[in-house]
Amino acid sequence: MTETPSAVLDRLTVVMDTFDGNARQSLAQIVRRTGLPRSSAHRMLERLVALRWLRREGREYELGMRLVELGSLAIHQDRLHSSAAPFLHELHRMTGFVIHLGILQGNEVVYLDKVGEGLGKKVPSRVGGKQPAHCTAIGKVLLAHSEETPASDETLERKTRFSIGSATQLSRELQTVRDRGLAIEREEAVPRFGCIAVPIGEPGQAVGAVSICGPVDQLKFDNRLAAPLRMAALGMWRNVAGDDVHITPTLQRRRMMAPQPLPVAG
Predict the structure, then answer these.
(1) Disulfide: which of 11, 17, 138, 253 matches 197 by Cβ 3.0-4.6 Å?
(2) How confident is the model at residue 30, as a pLDDT?
């Protein structure tokens, strides 16, 4: 029986999804992870190699240059990314820290951009990469403005000993984020690194978020970073929404004073 186009696409998607977290795989590994017949998987993989979606090195397969080309094109055509880009670079120039732009996908953060130069090599994030949202400042800001929250009895993955480990603890933290208008995290995703993040969008909503990330012993978790971060997020949103921006943001509810420490994340 001839497979329908939708069935073929479903199988291709299953194959391609196995490369998320697995840079190189053998045919046997792909068969084991997909459950596809070995002969079908082999035909599919060789066709993907011919189309440059995959590349074969010896007996192992890895993602091909066609995906790199299309992925880069998708990011640069993304309106949020293009609107945010100049502000990301300016924040990095001003602070010297790593700057992330991210969106929420389910209960994970997907990074649309990362600006960091030398320090960026020490932070194990990448464009297109994902992290559990509850472990990151960007993720907490986005979760605080979405309906994507874990069930009350759900145990959460912990990346470090400082990560939030329960839905109850996360619920309290997200309320703090909503009250504060920003999120901070200290070593919850990566040891010795922390972040401060704010939402991008109308008050009470978030189409994305931007963060400043750096060593916890160098970051100032106060308004010295919060103020330029808020202003950058507002500028990004103005670029995205154009004349539709309503300037009644968090900046007006929480007037920026001389540097004062922010509360430590729970």
Answers:
(1) 138
(2) 94
Would the pLDDT of 139 be above 90? yes
**Residue 250, pLDDT score:** 38
Instruction: Indicate whether this model's pTM tops 0.85.
Output: no
- Edge-to-edge strands of the sheet including 25-26? 25-26, 60-63, 54-57
Alpha-carbon distances of 71 from 66, 68, 96, 128, 209, rounded to whole Å: 8, 5, 27, 9, 20
Instruction: Please calculate the CA angle 69-70-74 and round it to the nearest 5 degrees.
Output: 125
Mean pLDDT value of segment 195-217: 92
What does the pLDDT look like over 213-246, one tens digit per residue? 999 999 988 888 999 999 999 999 998 887 555 5
**How do 108-115 and 54-57 pair as beta strands?**
unpaired
C-beta separation of 145 from 204 below 8 A: yes
> Could you give the angle at the alpha carbon of 26 between the alpha carbons of 22 and 29, nearest 5°?
70
Residue 195, H or E segment:
strand 193-200
**What phi and psi values does residue 220 have, to the nearest 5 degrees?**
-105, 105
Helix (H, G, I), strand (E, B) or coil at 152: coil
